[in-house]
Amino acid sequence: MVPLSSRRVLAHTSVFMIVPFLTSTDPLFTLCIALTCAFSVLHWGQYRIGSVYQALDRAFSAMTIGILVCRSSILVPLPVLLGFFLAGRYCHNRGLFDYHLPLHLTFRGVAFWWCCHYCDHLDPTTFAVYILIYIAQAYYIYSHEPTHRHVFVQKQEHKD
Question: Are 124 and 30 in contact (CB under 8 A)?
């Protein structure tokens, strides 16, 4: 099972898909990215393997990437995107969650860059700010997981 801290990071960082949603002029892409965002937040927030949310997150993510493959002016990100996704999936399937999280976050970062490029919203300064906020948000959520502190405090109290 994916640790709660990783699930919280992935649920909260899913919200970054709002940027391409707000900047897209392609109605189909806008719909797919909005649904990907919604089902990703629901999937990671209420994590259950094989859930409807997981299936819909996967389906709309695949449709979003399909739109990028068919309509984007560049395909360079596709092999990089697939590489990070498959490496993360490999780690996830083997319970190597300390590797899965950064690989999945990098996969999403590449996808986010590609979405912003497709939406013609790729000012280097703005994108750098997005990535810094994304990394800071992920780090803060992961390092301030209240469940870990709560368990630690409970164990300390029982020792007395």
Answer: no
